[in-house]
Amino acid sequence: MKKLYLVLLLTLFSSLFTNDIFAQCEDITVDSLTNPGPFDVATLTEADGIRNGPDYFGATIYYPTNATPPFASIAIVPGFTALPSSVEEWGPFYASHGIVTIIIGTNSIYDFPEARAIALIDALETIKQENSRATSPLEGALNLDQLAVSGWSMGGGGAQRAAVLDNTIAGVVALCPYLTNPQLTHQSPVLIFSGENDNVAPPSQHADIHYDITPITTDKLLFEIANGNHSVANTPNGGGGSVGKIALTWLKLYVEENDCYCPLLTDELLVNPPAASKVEQDFECELLGVNSQELAIGFYPNPTKGIVNLEILEDVQFKLISPLGQDLLRGNLSGDNKQIDLSPFPSGMYFLNIEGQTIKLVKHN
């Protein structure tokens, strides 16, 4: 009788769940990709106790002070002979949208891309240690499965190489990258910006080749900015602001795994963009929604203080999502005793995605 009641209850409220899904995405629009974003930003340096990485020289971490963790993170390195100040505007921009950002210098301003790749990986180690450093404001606040890299010029070449050297990197943003004889076999979703009039790293000799040799199995996007020079993507304001909007959307979609950002790319930002002289794309994404072939799912109790029992005949995969669209937990549900444990998370509303279906769960104390 309980199973019948649960299935009937699910059927009765399925339209409400669908509305909740779309309501979750309603606030995610092109207009929401502002510079700065909605969150206040603070910084950390080595003077505040962050790690002094041996493979880079100096670092600043930008982080949101009033956003809900856990946070994704990105490491950014400048180009040949350049200082961190050349790309520093990305720090407060990303952080104001809830992405922790570490911007580093290099041990030598003459470091080539491979050394910059190693520097980025070392910067991610610093991020990981902030998640466990007892006096850090980021202690326990970082999702260490959501780490990305970025860089300008040779730093952009280094960012692409970092994904080859470290297959745990969840995303790459290459800013007018310079990399000769590239070897870029990796599976990290990669966004490449280039400038149409870049005389330092001409797209035909760098960005275009990078895009072409990245495996077709890797989600990838090339956005060439009309009349852009070598530094056109050094700030989120490049290309009339399109650089920042596309980069943020890419990270939200592929690093934070928030599918609400999919239509911003496919239906808006990449549809006849006035800032682009060329766009090449080979990626797949889908809108967070309800599968047309729905499973019969029973679940109780809801609201819950911790454990939610699920009654599903099939073995399935699940993903637990925060109200901000952040990926909190994922795994498999199998056997006769299928459960989700919300006890590690604070009270509030969560979305449980199972094989394309999404259920709203509420946790209370």
Could you explain how this protein is built, in words?
This is Putative secreted protein (Por secretion system target). Keywords: Signal. It comes from Ulvibacter antarcticus. The chain is α/β, with parallel strands linked by helices and 365 residues long. It has 2 domains: 30-282, Rossmann fold (3-Layer(aba) Sandwich), CATH 3.40.50.1820; 298-363, Sandwich (Immunoglobulin-like), CATH 2.60.40. It has helices at residues 2-26, 90-96, 113-130, 154-165, 207-213, 242-255, 262-269, and strands at residues 41-44, 59-64, 71-77, 99-104, 142-152, 171-175, 190-195, 220-225, 276-282, 298-300, 307-311, 316-321, 327-333, 338-341, 348-354, 357-363. The strands form 3 sheets. The protein has a 9-stranded mixed β-sheet with strand order 1-2-4-3-5-6-7-8-9, sandwiched between helices. A 4-stranded antiparallel β-sheet has the order 13-12-15-16, covered by helices on one side. α2 (90-96) links the parallel β3 (71-77) and β4 (99-104). The longest helix has 25 residues, at 2-26. The two termini are 28 Å apart. Mean pLDDT is 89; it is low at 1-21.
How many structural units, i.e. domains?
2
How would you characterize the largest beta sheet? 9 strands, mixed
CATH architecture of the largest domain: 3-Layer(aba) Sandwich
The CATH top-level class label of the largest domain: Alpha Beta
Q: Averaging pLDDT over every residue, what do you get?
A: 89
How many strand units?
Answer: 16
Radius of gyration: 21 Å
